[in-house]
Amino acid sequence: MCCTALRNLLQGLSFSAKYYSKHNPPQTVCPFSKIGPKKCHILGCSKSTCTHRTAPPGSILPCRFFSCKEGKKVLSQRKQNTSKVTSDLLPKSLLKSEQKKWNNISPIYKAMTKRIKEKLEELHNMYTLNSRSPRIRFGENVYFEENGCIFIAKADDGEGNAKILFSVEDLGFSDAFIQRIRISPDQRYMAISLKSENSEEATCTIMKLGDLPVVEKVIPSVFSFEWAANDVLYYTAQKNLKCQNVFMTTFTYQKRTKLVYTEQDARFFVDLYCTKDRRFLTINSNSKTTSEVWLVDCRHPFESPALVQARTTGLIYHIEHRKDQLYILTTYGEPAEYKAILTDNYIHRINLDAYLASSGKENWQLVYALERKTKLVDFEMFSDDCIMFLKNAGHLYLNVISFVSHSVQSIKLPTWACEFELESHPEHTTSTCYFQLSSPVHPPKRFAYSFKENNLIEQAVQEVPIITNCHTTRLLAKSKDETLVPITVFHNKNSKELHRRPLLVHVYGAYGIDLNMSFKEEKLMLIEEGWILAYCHVRGGGEQGLSWHRDGCQHKKLKGLHDLRACITLLHQVGFSQPKHTALAAASAGGVLAGALCNTDPALLRAVVLQAPFVDVLNTMMKTHLPLTIEEQEEWGNPLEDEKCMKYIKSYCPYQNIKPQCYPSVFITAYENDERVPLTGILQYVQKLRKAALDHASRTSKKGNWIPNIILDVQANGSHCDSSWEHSLNE
């Protein structure tokens, strides 16, 4: 894929911003591993048929948040917030108090929990366990990972004769899962990253393959890595949730490690990607609004990286290569949405530096531009074609650009589909592109696009039952400023009196990230039990392109709140449930809009479910000692230097606007080891919210006055919105 990354942190991290779903136990049993099914994995390789990619800048990860780790304070002319907790005693006492409350209240739900758990396990066994892990086709060999074991098989022999290369436990990482795999071009080496659920940082282990694979090198705190040549690996080092240094290391002859690039701007994050044809390794330095790419020629991996286009504020671009020409996916020009660009010259005719010197943005030629309000979900380059995976008004499309006929073919995908997932990434010379489609209530279904036949093929083999009793509806809600906001609704076709049915509304609305609409067993369970599911694609998210994000961030964040209010109001007006049967679910930055709506319109909801929510925007953005605060200013603004920004954030910040009133019930899950959303802020939010609800109840004292349940479950395991199937099931 030509689009490299801003963030490759665990929620999303392909350009399509997701991982493979919770992982499956092996079809071939691994005798060396006792590890249970782990969560999502990223598979990829050099010069192979499977890889996972990163999200483009301007499409920031949903969970890129603030670390709880203390650091050096950066002094400001503005006085630091006086409510800043200076002692660990308060957080510890609050945590202990909340844990005691949770231990007292959780037994009440024991019977319900048992029933739900049994149902979810049944659905998990029916759907998820029947799917297989992604395969890496590499010449005559196929590599795959199952249950913590790496297997190799001959492509023509079938996987029944697969051989185990090694297991995670063999490497001494019994509590870790495999996050990423890269295989060297000559298949002599395999680099894998291993990560535990309780840590943000991964360890890269390089294995020398053979009859008895051995550990060649172990590199701690690595984020991304790619092979530039048979024995030359480039990697980025991660520290305090930042990646700003790129290293090169070699494994034969003169073994050495060398620093090749350092990013000086704290707003920028660095990662690596190899072009589809393996000609170039790209060093991508990205902020949330701006990017810069350096090229390493894989034919000359020891030469210094060459700059493609110096960073220009607001300009985002990504690089792909085909037949000696660079193709650039960029926001250059108007409108500021993605466009495919071709450079003038041919690289083989001049050296790389001279080529890049004559290929500045003033010489870029437009190949294709997206339509207005269209989201580019994914992009894949082939020898004679490229495929764009697009989203428009909630519908998914394929646009196939032919470099031979200079034509564009647009294919609308099934109306029920909400998510793309490229299956096994084909070599750039292949004639077929395989991918999967899914929705929250439809398990992944396999499709293929044939370049030779110019058509879409639905794969005949169905390993799991097809959901037939679920209806998908798409609505448009008119927001406060007359903007139409898309809503996707799912409900059981057999449900009667929909206005009496319980409704679960989902929202996110930040970083240009779409709502996660991949298949989940719990969503299907709710549909089967008569629930209505609604997904509100509000501004601040990315469902309608980069402008949709820009129209809902910084000083426009309130537009997302207006959108959410309009969506829920419309759902009730057209007969989907009513306020007393409506719940709202959000995670991470989605907690900003969900928490704000609880303050402004609590009567619209009966319950709210929040996972690792960001609910104290103002205090967090005032703490510049947190490692990600500076780069987050492009999303929320800088209240330390801008008085208007501080007042604006204060106007919608959930924590700042709690007041005595009748709130909906609230259930929050938080994680002790969460480095992105400080636990202290959540603890204080719960205390303040609970006090406000009790104050309101004591003032009104009406007969039958309803006091909401406000429950916090602080989990010792797991990290920010990132847990195994077992932990998700328990939650």
TrEMBL record:
Keyword annotations from UniProtKB, A to Z: Cytoplasm, Hydrolase, Protease, Serine protease
Any one GO molecular-function label of the UniProt entry: serine-type endopeptidase activity
Uppermost EC category: hydrolase
Domain Peptidase S9 prolyl oligopeptidase catalytic: 518-696
EC code: 3.4.21.-
Listed InterPro entries: AB_hydrolase_fold, Pept_S9A_N, Peptidase_S9_cat, Peptidase_S9A, Serine_Peptidase_S9A
Subcellular location(s) of the protein: Cytoplasm, Cytosol
GO biological process terms on file: proteolysis
Protein name: Prolyl endopeptidase
Organism this protein belongs to: Quiscalus mexicanus (Great-tailed grackle)
Lineage: Eukaryota, Metazoa, Chordata, Craniata, Vertebrata
